Each structure stands twice: as structure tokens, then as C-alpha cells.
Amino acid sequence: MSAPISNVRPAPDKVLTDIADYTTKYSITSKEAYDTARYCLMDTLGCGFEALEYPACTKLLGPIVPGTVVPNGAKVPGTNFQLDPVQAAFNLGAMIRWLDFNDTWLAAEWGHPSDNLGGILMTADWLARNGQKLTMKDVLTAMIKAHEIQGVLALENSYNRVGLDHVVLVKVASTAVVAQMLGLNYDQVVDAISQAWVDGQSLRTYRHAPNTGSRKSWAAGDATSRAVRLAMITKTGEMGYPSVLTAKTWGFYDVLFKGNQFKFQRPFGSYVMEQILFKISFPAEFHAQTAAECAMSIFQQMKSRGKAVEDIKKIQIRTHEAAIRIIDKKGPLANPADRDHCIQYMIAVPLIFGRLTAADYEDDVAKDPRIDRLRDKMTCVEDKQFSKDYLDPEKRSIPNALTVEFNDASSLPEVVVEYPIGHKRRRKEGIPHLVEKFERNLARRFPKQQQKAILDLCMDQKKLEETPVTRFVDAMVIA
User: Does pTM surpass 0.85?
Assistant: First the structure.
């Protein structure tokens, strides 16, 4: 006679319960976190609106089957699509990430926590259109928690060093907060999080030569939409996998993390949203933000001295280890996805044109022969102190320094920028520029009256938090 099946639930891995405890029980009380989340919401949606100008992005949007309309479905901001929450999350997530212009988190792993907004906002809108009372404060709370989960998991754990893409953390963070929004009980939230870890994870190869490609622009949309799907599957009562991380031989640690367990620098709170890095000046991989700022300064100095890029003999880039590992690229660059992850390209364009925009990664600009000639004159050198400051939790700097030497043996003084304008240490300086960026992006998509209504709502913290989710989303729909 076979033994009876036990109904005792095995103790889940502590990482799963820590995330579930935070997601379901922790109250966000930080005013700074909510204020920052509002600016993050504005900036993230604005990035999506700008991406809608690029056919390479828009060709991926809409329903899976053309012409499908979902009654009471989620409405995708900036479009006229009304979709199921999974596909809506993909749409918004792909828009947000397309131009590499939304927020950034840099640590042992890097990533873009606002990628989670695709799953969060589209799930909230779908739920609200089907009778659940949700306000934008609920969305901001979910954003803060998703930022925190993704960011804290990244502080001490490098997924890229084992070949995994950072969107694994988008999937985990989105799954946790979406599961809570869907009304799953505590055990189901744990189960949903386990589903995210056991799911197939993206290889990072699409971010690196010889395979650099446009998947890096929709990978986060795929991850946040997959999270919605996994949370919805779990809501049906589907079982979880309690030792998904720690199981010998078959768990995440042994299969994908070289047998190492995750390390944690700090408990979950609201640290990540408070410290988040905004991309304000340049649509560029964040390790190069300060390098591009240095290049813009040198462009002005060269202009005042009557120097041209043809006069440059060599350029030294003093930088940090992560920048060298990720964006120090020699040789041909295959496409825009390759170019916006090349520090030399992101320095050359400002030195030549005095600008760096999303359009500058396209073929019509990249074919200018001066860009590659200038790239060939650049050398990256690691500064050990820069690398140390990059990982210091009290600094979290992203430093770069440029020295330009000319053919006549003259040179410019080294230009050093340690903190980009989107850094917390430059928040007061950066926010007005962030708002201007949002205004520009609204103007790309909406008539003036609609632009003003959206901006006025977003600039009022109290009014925004009290606004029903459907009213907020409806304000950004294209008729």
C-alpha cells in the first residue's frame, strides 16, 4: 500500500518568503520615495512616447492577432490599443525600454527598474476597468516595491557574469507586485515568485558582439509581460516550487549561478527608488552618461579654441571597470543596438556634432566616417578608485574622465564628471530638466490641451495619488 500524500507545505526558500513578506506586508512611508516615483512615472511614460516615433518599435506593438480588441482590456498609453493585460504589458514595456532612455540602477548587476511599469500599470488598468478600485497611489507603491526588489537583488549579485540578462530581475519583481495586485494570498505570492525563478531566463548574448541586436530593446517588455502571465497562472491555483533556488543539481543556484547563493547588502525598504538614476541628458547606456557629458564640455572648449575633430591625435578615457566590461568596443558596430552600448561612439558623436540623441544611433548618422576615425583614437583605462566609488553604497558614482591631445602636441585639461545629472546628488539640478524632457515627449504625441492636462496632473503629487487609474490612463489614450 502506497504512503498517503502529505498536505504539509514544504518550507520555501528564504529569498522567496523575504520578497513575499516585503510585497504583501511592508508599508511604504517615505515621502521622498513617493515624490521620486512620481517623477519616475513621468519620465518612464515619456520614454515610451518618444519610442513611438520609431517603426522598429511600433511594428511589435498591438494585439498578437491584428484587429483584436479586448472588452474592458488595458489601454496602452500613447496608442489606441486596448489589450489583455499580458500583451498590454509587453506593449508598454517595449515602448519604455526601446531607446535606452529610462531610469537605471547600477551595482554588481545593472538594470532599469522602471521596466516593471509595463506590468504594473497595465495590470492596474485592466483590474480597474473590471471593477477593482485602484488609484495612482497604488501604482506608485507597486513601482517603489518593484524598484526595491530588482535593485536589492542586484546590489551584491552579478547575473551578467554568468551570462544571464538583468531582465530576470524584472520578471521576478513584476511577478511579486502584480501577484499582490491580483489579490493572491500570501502562499500564492510565494508560488508566483518561484514561477518567475524557475522560468526560462534570457541569455545576455543579444547585448554583446557578435550578436548585439534589437531584442535588448524589447527584452524587458517580454519579462514584465511574462510576469503578468505567471501571476495569473498562479491565481488559478497552480502550484509553486518552494526550493526553486536551493534544490541540489536542479535549482537556480546550481544550474545558473555556479552553485552560489544570493548575497544581500540590505533589507527591502525604499532605498532603490530614493537612489534611482534618471537618464536626463542622453539616451545612452548609463556607464557612458558622464563620458558624454565630458565630451559635450570638450566640444565647447574645442569650439572656442578653433579646433576640429581632425586636429585630435588621441583621447584617453579614464573610467571604471564596469564600463570597460560592457561598453568598451573596438571595430565595426552592426546596428543602433550596438552603437548605444559603445562608449567610444557615445563620445565621438558629441565631439563632432555637439549633441547625442536617439536619432544619432541610426545608420544615416553612423555612416559619417569621422565617427569611426575618432573611435580609433580612443583608449579606455581603468581607474581603480573610480571602480571602487562605483560600488560604494554611499557614493554610487558613475565616473568618467576624458583627456584630449592634439596633433600639434597641445592638449586640453582633463575633464572629469563623477555623477551624472540624473544622480541623487544632482537631483535638484536634474528635476527641471527631467520635466522638460517629459514635456518634449508629450508634445510628440498629444495636442496642446491634452499635453497640459497630463502635465498638470503629473505635477501635483496629491492629485495624482488620488486619481483613479483608469482616469489617468484615459488621459493618455490616442483617439
Answer: yes
